[in-house]
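Our preliminary data section would be incomplete without showing what the modeling component actually yields. Below, a chain of 235 amino acids is followed by its predicted structure, encoded as tokens that our downstream tools consume directly.
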Amino acid sequence: MAEEPPRKRMVRAPTRGSDDARATPARLKTAHKRTPSQQAWLERQINDPFAAKARAHGYRSRAAYKLTELDDRLRLLKPGARIVDLGLAPGGWTQVAIERGVTQIVGVDLLPVDPLPPAKILQMDFTDPSCGPMLIDLLGGPPDAVLSDMAPNTVGHRQTDHLRIVGLVEAGADFAVEVLRPGGVFVAKAFQGGETAEVIAKLKRAFADVRTLKPKASRADSSEIYLAATGFKGR
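Predicted structure:
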């Protein structure tokens, strides 16, 4: 009898994958001259689906997807609006605003930021008293929205770091109340905690609606939230 030909093995067709696909986490091949925390951060980045999407789309940071979700839900960015972006580095939020039709936008950060025309960018400390007037002068008038993704450099002490971020949220909120047009919007990154509740109470006195939101692009293990205050009542 003739021998039967060898059976072909069934091979599953490759898939394109998705953000929810389960796969073995990638690991860096070397940890040379990196601290354990640096190594962990880098491994988290290469395994982060939002970071991968940002690279593919051309966004400068995964944080862009936080603003896109907030805008999809609340319609914060309108063509022709004037926008201030606080803590804009590396520029993901400004990219989203420009992509969605905003042409009048100014931003500030302590770090240098590559140009993002038509945005006008300041490199300075937002808490410097001269910064606010400079932003409004560059913008050419009161903004329709103040966006803040500011975060302080952490020191590793949870309570201290929390108080520092709350301080930045308060500074951003005070600036927004001082400069926004009636009906305007303030959005800021914050973290869950008692002090944040005090900021929310202050915002509720100045805005018609205040919400706390956690976009999908915010990591699940982070206490990060976003405050979205809309319908500024005016001064």
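The CA atoms of residues 154 and 161 lie 6 Å apart. Strands lie at 82-86, 104-109, 120-123, 145-148, 185-191, 207-213, 224-232. Preliminary results of this kind motivate Aim 1 of the renewal.
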